[in-house]
Structure to design on (264 residues):
């Protein structure tokens, strides 16, 4: 794995940081390949029960790095659909499907694909100086990286259309007020608050949280009956976990539960 993605092992969780601070963590194929590998490694580690995604330096992610290789050439225009499908969309899918909570700490601008990666996470904190921007229209492109999916569901169709077409930045406090993110926090408190939150989630019933993610991920595409059936099936699965047995036992014994997460 290259140093464009920093991976730090913590007690029960991992910190993944985009690490091209001199480029505002603009994305390259090498970087996204490393991020996909890091997400897969977290998924496959039963001891990893939560994850923090953030960026080094003064920006979270400026989106895809533009280069000559992405310009039309003698052989014709580049296949940007291949780029999105091979890299950006694989990252979004992995974040949404990880069987654990994923917290994003947005420490600066989250633009284009960077905004999509952030909005794909389960809980998003942002520094008050941070902003979210759909830059695609500025260079003649349309939305990708899940932005056309997340934005209407988070802020409504009217705001989503304006944000996409006007490409205006959304400051963190407005993003919180609109329901785009969970919370805006003071810049100097972002890292500490995000790490405290992830450390807490790493002590919770990880399998139940993973099932909750599955239910919420499918909710928008289901009618009521289908969602009720899904809830039934997932609740049955949750009721068979060791963490459920521990939770009930701790409640009856009037003590704090000690959850084992994905170990059984």
């Amino acid at each position: 794995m290259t140093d464009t993605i920093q991976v730090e092992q913590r007690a029960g969780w991992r910190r993944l940081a985009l690490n091209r601070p001199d480029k505002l963590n603009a994305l390259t194929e090498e970087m996204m390949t490393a991020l996909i590998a890091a997400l897969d490694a977290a998924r496959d580690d039963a001891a990893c029960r939560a994850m923090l995604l953030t960026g080094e330096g003064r920006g979270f992610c400026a989106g895809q790095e533009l280069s000559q290789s992405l310009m039309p050439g003698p052989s014709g225009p580049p296949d940007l659909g291949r780029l999105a499908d091979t890299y950006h969309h694989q990252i979004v899918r992995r974040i949404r499907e990880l069987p654990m909570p994923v917290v994003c700490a947005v420490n600066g601008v989250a633009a284009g694909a960077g905004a999509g990666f952030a909005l794909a996470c389960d809980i998003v904190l942002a520094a008050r100086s941070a902003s979210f921007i759909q830059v695609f229209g500025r260079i003649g492109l349309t939305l990708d990286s899940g932005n056309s999916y997340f934005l209407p569901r988070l802020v409504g169709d009217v705001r989503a259309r304006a944000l996409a077409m006007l490409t205006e930045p959304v400051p963190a406090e407005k993003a919180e007020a609109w329901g785009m993110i969970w919370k805006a926090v003071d810049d100097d408190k972002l890292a500490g608050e995000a790490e405290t939150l992830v450390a807490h989630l790493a002590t919770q019933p990880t399998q139940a949280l993973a099932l909750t993610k599955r239910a919420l991920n499918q909710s928008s595409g289901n009618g009521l009956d289908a969602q009720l059936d899904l809830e039934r099936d997932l609740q049955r699965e949750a009721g068979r976990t060791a963490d459920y047995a521990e939770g009930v036992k701790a409640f009856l014994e009037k003590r704090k539960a000690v959850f084992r997460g994905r170990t059984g």
